[in-house]
């Protein structure tokens, strides 16, 4: 049994060192990040905004459309089997409304909407995501000659529910990682589909093709990962995928922790699938070494932590079973033995300290990106991390299940 324990210690050591390197590297790249905003010759008139909508809250949708109207661009709303009151709200604000007779899903709605786009750029905005003032103008400023797509920073609207703080914590953690990835002009893993601008000439033919509208995973039609698929297409086409961190779009939080878990599961399944797909088709190679490093660690770290926990728990049970006298002793002796054996067997000082230091460094970076109610956000972030740990493991095992949206 001793050699199994040594393997566990070695696995723990490797995982701790890699995670420490991951946290430290992200923070170092974050610190030396240079702003990439440049003066663009393109105006807001060169952008058409497309908004797919299905069964959205009327108040939320109205607020979104008003924020889009203020940008000064033309916009199209695609009602995915949804007509009123979305049609009236859209047309009253000067937009064009088109709809489908039956539900076609977000991919189908996006594909229909882009048919009507003839401007240089197309921008997709979710029906629950509100744009700040001058968002389009600022995002256009991030386009260089080799830039194919630019996403906005995403923030969760906080309310009285704790889940809104958990969701905001996860967005701020993603912000740290993505800022590090784009710090030296590199590609990010995904341009968030909630708010993104693309070069029309790059994405329009692709989004009108069966490869996008009839996307399948293991022979089954998938309704997930549209933003990850578009991001991969941009990188494969030889263009850069980045974000504009000066624009923060506001989006509604999940209703409760169950919806947060379901939403996270959808994203996790999509991420794991595209991780393997991008490795296989060369997208990862085109994106660069740091892109591969970030993707690989993001993929492996949650799984490694879960496996270490399972190994250690199994070993502990076996170790106690080897000492039946302990089980027959009084309760105090049993607890004392458990604490001593766990502390001595599973935590060398090096592993413990390195783990704490790495987590503290990354946690400080995340906390610094939280704009208000920092303490409460970080506290609920602990709940989010616990949920994500198990969601990551389950999502990996079920990444082929992509035919259900889960939250609508």
Give me a quick take on this structure.
58% of the residues lie in helices and 13% in strands.
Oligomer: single chain
How much strand content do the residues show? 5-15%
Biggest β-sheet, characterized? Answer: 8 strands, mixed
Q: Please identify the structural class as seen in this structure.
A: alpha/beta
- Please give the domain count: 1
Unreliable residue runs = 339-347
Rounded mean pLDDT score: 85
End-to-end separation in angstroms reads 49 Å
Which series of helices and strands comes N to C?
A: HEHEHEHEEHEHEHHEEHEHHHHHHH
Give the number of helices: 16
Strand order, main sheet: write it out.
Answer: 3-2-1-4-7-6-10-5
* CA radius of gyration: 24 Å
Give the tally of β-strands: 10
- Tertiary shape: globular
Helical content (DSSP H or I, runs of 4+): 55-70%
Structure description:
The chain is an alpha/beta fold. The protein has one domain. It has helices at residues 2-31, 58-69, 86-92, 105-114, 135-140, 162-181, 200-207, 210-213, 226-236, 257-281, 283-287, 289-321, 324-328, 331-346, 349-369, 374-397, and strands at residues 47-53, 74-79, 96-99, 121-125, 129-130, 147-156, 195-199, 216-217, 220-221, 240-251. An eight-stranded mixed β-sheet has the order 3-2-1-4-7-6-10-5, sandwiched between helices. Strands 8-9 form a two-stranded antiparallel ribbon. The longest helix has 33 residues, at 289-321. It starts with a helix and ends in an 11-residue tail after the last helix. The model is unreliable at 339-347 (pLDDT under 50).
